[in-house]
């Protein structure tokens, strides 16, 4: 007879179950490789490979995945039950991109709790740049002062735009700034929210 006070108690051995759990993380995020998972978690390939080979249980990554995707914590931990929790709040899946050598590269998708997203998004996407995650809206009526996803001569980046007279704009980063004609750039999307992981 169990003496546990918790009817749903789960015994977790930190030194086993890691391989299967990491495979479930790859599936939950919609990736096809463990390398993509390592990139998303911002850990080195060797760190992930070490946990995988040693079968070390990735409790920290599982918690992060459950929060980001809404996938059932029980399923991520044990592989049992429903993948999507019935208690999960309304979620929205957004196409995800990352910057690679100045290019925007498709990088799977990301599922958010709808309450986390900015209101009145019309055509949202997620863009990751290192530790920074941007939620962007590709539909906008006017380019006002603020942060935008832009294309300059085939190079994509997020920059601060300030409108100037006579069709000119000032484009700024934390390091530098310059002025050019508005027609010299292509505006891709408005930055609606920015999250930086530490």
UniProtKB/TrEMBL annotation:
<feature type="domain" description="Bacteriophage CI repressor C-terminal">
    <location>
        <begin position="98"/>
        <end position="190"/>
    </location>
</feature>
<dbReference type="InterPro" id="IPR010982">
    <property type="entry name" value="Lambda_DNA-bd_dom_sf"/>
</dbReference>
<dbReference type="GO" id="GO:0045892">
    <property type="term" value="P:negative regulation of DNA-templated transcription"/>
</dbReference>
<dbReference type="GO" id="GO:0003677">
    <property type="term" value="F:DNA binding"/>
</dbReference>
<dbReference type="GO" id="GO:0051259">
    <property type="term" value="P:protein complex oligomerization"/>
</dbReference>
<dbReference type="Pfam" id="PF16452">
    <property type="entry name" value="Phage_CI_C"/>
</dbReference>
<dbReference type="InterPro" id="IPR032499">
    <property type="entry name" value="Phage_CI_C"/>
</dbReference>
<protein>
    <submittedName>
        <fullName>Bacteriophage CI repressor</fullName>
    </submittedName>
</protein>
<dbReference type="InterPro" id="IPR010744">
    <property type="entry name" value="Phage_CI_N"/>
</dbReference>
<dbReference type="Pfam" id="PF07022">
    <property type="entry name" value="Phage_CI_repr"/>
</dbReference>
<feature type="domain" description="Bacteriophage CI repressor N-terminal">
    <location>
        <begin position="20"/>
        <end position="83"/>
    </location>
</feature>
């Amino acid at each position: 007879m169990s003496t546990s006070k918790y009817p749903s108690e789960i015994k977790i051995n930190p030194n086993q179950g890691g391989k299967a759990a990491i495979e479930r993380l790859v599936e939950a995020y919609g990736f096809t490789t463990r390398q993509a998972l390592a990139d998303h978690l911002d850990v080195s390939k060797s760190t992930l490979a070490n946990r995988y080979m040693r079968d070390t249980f990735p409790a920290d990554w599982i918690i992060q995945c459950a929060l980001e995707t809404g996938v059932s914590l029980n399923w991520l931990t044990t592989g049992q039950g429903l993948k999507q929790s019935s208690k999960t709040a309304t979620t929205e899946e957004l196409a995800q991109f990352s910057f690679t050598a100045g290019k925007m590269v498709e990088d799977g998708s990301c599922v958010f709790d709808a309450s986390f997203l900015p209101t009145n998004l019309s055509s949202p996407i997620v863009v990751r740049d290192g530790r920074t995650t941007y939620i962007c809206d590709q539909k906008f009526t006017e380019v006002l002062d603020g942060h935008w996803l832009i294309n300059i001569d085939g190079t994509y980046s997020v920059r601060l735009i300030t409108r100037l007279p006579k069709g000119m704009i000032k484009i700024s980063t934390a390091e530098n700034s310059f002025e050019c004609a508005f027609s010299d750039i292509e505006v891709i999307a408005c930055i609606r929210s920015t999250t930086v992981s530490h």
